[in-house]
Amino acid sequence: MDALQARERLRRRYLFPRDVEVQPDREGYAGPETSTPVEKKEKPLPRLNIHSGFWILASIAVTYYVDFFQAVKENFHTNSWFLFGGALLLVSLSIAFYCIVYLEWYCGIEDYDIKYPTLIPITTATFIVAGICFNVALWHVWSFFTPLLLFTQFMGVVMLISLLG
Fold it and tell me: What global pTM score does this model have?
């Protein structure tokens, strides 16, 4: 019997924190369903860190050194891929603003992805297709560097938005 009691003590020692007092059931076993969870408050991460600063600075450098806005301005009306990608990006951003501004802020629905489960996949799909259209539209300008440059711009914008809120 001493070996069984020692095994039970070991099991209890590793299942529960030391400061939690657990009442055993009628057989003497205190299962994990009777324990109280220990919650730790995590310190929130700072908004500006090395990772976000790197992407923002890389996006600024790409914009400056490859004349990004000049290339976009020259190809805006000459390429239908660019216009189609812009329309899809507008659809994607409209759905995102609908979710964030109207559903979450105005209506107070915090779990809009549960109530409207198709909104997030539609937004993601339109954004990915818009990115492909932008790559095709600007491929003749930067060739194999186009996906890298557009991804750097995308990450810079995402990190800049994350600084705002």
Answer: 0.68
* Rounded Cα gap, residues 40 and 68, in angstroms: 46
Structure tokens at 9: 């003590």
User: For residue 89, which of 144, 141, 153 has the smallest C-alpha distance?
Assistant: 153
Give burial (CB, 10 Å; 0-12/13-18/19+) of 133: buried
* pLDDT tens-digit readout, 104-149: 889 988 888 889 999 999 999 999 999 999 999 999 999 999 999 9
